[in-house]
Amino acid sequence: MSVQLTVAIMMTIAGAATPLLIAALGELVVEKSGVLNLGVEGMMLIGAVAGFAVAYSTGVPTLGAIAALIAGALVSSVFAFLTLSLMANQVATGLALTIFGTGVSALIGAPFVGITTSTLGPLFAFDNPLLRLLFGHSPLVYLGIALTIAVWWFLKHSRPGLILRAVGESDDAAHAIGYPVLRIRYLAVLFGGAMAGLAGCYYSLVLTPMWAERLTAGRGWIAIALVVFASWKPGRVLLGAYLFGLVITMELQAKAAGFNMFAPEFLAALPYLATVAVLAIISFAPQGGANAPACLAKPFRATA
Amino acid sequence: MGWELEPRGEASRKANLAAPVIAVFGALVTGAILFTFLGHNGLSAVYEIFIAPLTNTYRWQDLLVKAAPLAIIATGLAIGFRANVWNIGAEGQYILGGLGGTWVALQTLDMTGGWILPAMILMGMIWGAAYAAVPAILKTKLGVNEILSSLMLNYVAIQLLYYLMRAPWKDPMAFGFPQTAMFTSDQTLPMMASGTLIHLGVPIAAAIALTAWGVMTRTIVGFQVRSVGASPKAARFAGFSASSTVWLALLVGGGLAGLAGILEASGPFGQMVPQFPTGYGYTAIIVAFLGRLNPLGILIASFVLALTYVGGENAQTAIGLPNAAAGVFQALMLFFLLGFDILASYRLKRTAPKPSPTANTSGVTPVEAEGARA
């Protein structure tokens, strides 16, 4: 295999992994605070369409990414209000958020179907394959890796991170000590929404600079599965996201190479089959799935 | 002076029944505002989706036909939701049901006989239930979360459908279109009255909801499902096994979604095509909640959600509203419903500046209270 092709494949892996990574890191922080937001797919779609709309109308992709961030946080605030202030069932509200995001994004995006915009592509162009592999990605690829380190440091070594984990592990105890449980959870959900929005705009501004209904095609759900797969550890989210990037790249490369051994439909189903397989496999691990925050998806109501 | 939530000793029946009605109206008002904000005519959107279809007898028939699969699927899902089993793979189970029946149809294209249609329906239910058995095994044997596994399988089912339509099951006489042969008259659902759209699936849906209502309220199995959901610990002491409840919920949910699938394939479609999945499996989740997880409520809710389908199509042709508009109204209904649920377990109370320390002394969380309401 030529160096050019190898580099191209590795870059595709990073590209496919990045939105999963960013969305999963956001969801990880949300879940660490004790909240299960299943609306990632819907928030990603909102981010994707908001990013595209703003990038298209201003001509500045960076503004699109910022809009995606804000739109994701905005729509997640609906979830936060319902589940945190009104103690609504988190599973059902998350599903509603996904249905809502799918509908609203299609509605907003209808005028944009079939047009392209300027992309949030690499900052520098290189002919040298090695330099391209190191420095030739979209800025969001680097942001994803930086975010992994930041989230890891925040949760493991910062005081606010410790408080956030305490809220997720024992909300009553955290409340008794005097921490504002709901405010912390609100902030976590908004962060998760912003990250999902940003991840969504990766599809509409980097991978395919266009908008189509249901553009993210279930990747939001894979991001949620990644958090479980990673046992709620940021480093393993990075690993998992790049593994999925590999699976998705295999699909794309097999199609491009006219590889006929498997039906294209099988390859398209592969990331979803892989997710189910991975969830099954990690359950064999010594502490697989046992690392979930103790208060995950439990509503909290302050007692005096 | 402020407002405080005070837990009710017992969940309010009135609030429980009022919430869906408030939810529908809340969704209409919010939807109208949201659509106006997005540059559409909000009022005419509401009119074309929710009112115009009711003024036309032909559309009434269409409503019944679209409510039937929603009611069948939602009845199955509600059993699971009551037991805290979150099967959100109904869309995939619906597709597999359609495929299972279609497989029988393709084997019997040259045959005649009254047994063919029942065989197709049975096979549809088996395939649907078998597809739901995958998350059931994963959940009971390995503890894999059924939300994620059942949802992932929806995407797999769609690809399986595309594959079968593109090659193995494609009708060679279809001029290259990816679709199966048309079903024969022995393979299609009979009409309830000639000249109408209403097929046998409509009374089947009503019968299933009524049966489920009887089973859930009058039998020990219904009690088991409700107890496991309401309080797993108490149910364990009573000797009800959590894993058998998971199996029950998923097999019944998958079987009924499969039934809805084959009824659609052998009814309105009359063949299998790639456009077969229309999102009923997702919409049925909203039907189940709007119907308060009660089969009788689900019958009513299935009409409301069928209205968004029929009205959505109507609004598309009448005022050029994108098809996605219906989905927005559906999600808004669920948002409002979930938001107002709090009033069933808590009452709003005006408080003096100093809040009293009596809150939630019963130790009952809202989730448990919701189960206890059943």
TrEMBL record, chain A:
Q: How does it sit in the membrane?
A: Multi-pass membrane protein
Entry-linked Pfam families: BPD_transp_2 (PF02653)
Answer yes or no on keyword Protease.
no
Q: What is this protein called?
A: ABC transporter, permease protein
- Gene Ontology MF annotations: transmembrane transporter activity
Q: Where in the cell is it found?
A: Cell membrane
A GO CC annotation given for this chain: plasma membrane
Q: What is the organism lineage in this UniProt record?
A: Bacteria, Pseudomonadati, Pseudomonadota, Alphaproteobacteria, Hyphomicrobiales
Keywords, alphabetical: Cell membrane, Membrane, Transmembrane, Transmembrane helix
Q: Does the keyword DNA damage apply?
A: no
- Where are the membrane-spanning stretches? 6-26, 38-57, 63-84, 91-113, 133-155, 186-205, 266-285
Fetch the InterPro entries from UniProt: ABC_transp_permease (IPR001851)
Classify the source by domain of life: Bacteria
TrEMBL record, chain B:
Where is the protein localized? Cell membrane
Top-rank taxon of the source lineage equals Bacteria
Organism expressing this protein natively: Fulvimarina pelagi HTCC2506
Look up the signal peptide feature and give its range: none
Q: Does the keyword Membrane apply?
A: yes
- InterPro entries per record: ABC_transp_permease (IPR001851)
Where does it mainly reside?
membrane
Q: Which GO terms describe its molecular function?
A: transmembrane transporter activity
**Pfam families membership:** BPD_transp_2
User: Residue ranges of region Disordered?
Assistant: 352-374
- What is the name attached to this protein's record? Inner-membrane translocator
Keyword annotations from UniProtKB, A to Z = Cell membrane, Membrane, Transmembrane, Transmembrane helix
Q: Which GO terms describe its cellular component?
A: plasma membrane
Q: Specify the taxonomic lineage.
A: Bacteria, Pseudomonadati, Pseudomonadota, Alphaproteobacteria, Hyphomicrobiales
Spans traversing the lipid bilayer: 21-43, 63-81, 115-134, 146-165, 197-216, 237-263, 269-289, 296-312, 324-344
The annotated topology with respect to the bilayer is: Multi-pass membrane protein
